[in-house]
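Private note to self, pasted from the team thread so I don't lose it. Backbone tokens:
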């Protein structure tokens, strides 16, 4: 499964509002600036800072 390209263009990091990188193999969105990884579960990005894990 993969995220919609349209969705990826509008998603930003909830902490810094910076761009995210989708890592399909890990099912996660990564913010390089904050060094946080947001999980993607069943094609739904979990964009909660409390759910993010450090890189």
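Design output:
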């Amino acid at each position: 499964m993969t995220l919609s390209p349209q969705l990826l263009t509008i998603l930003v990091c909830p902490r810094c509002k910076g761009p995210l990188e989708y890592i399909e193999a890990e099912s996660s969105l990564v913010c390089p600036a904050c060094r946080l990884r947001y999980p993607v579960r069943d094609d739904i990005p979990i964009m909660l800072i409390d759910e993010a894990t450090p890189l």
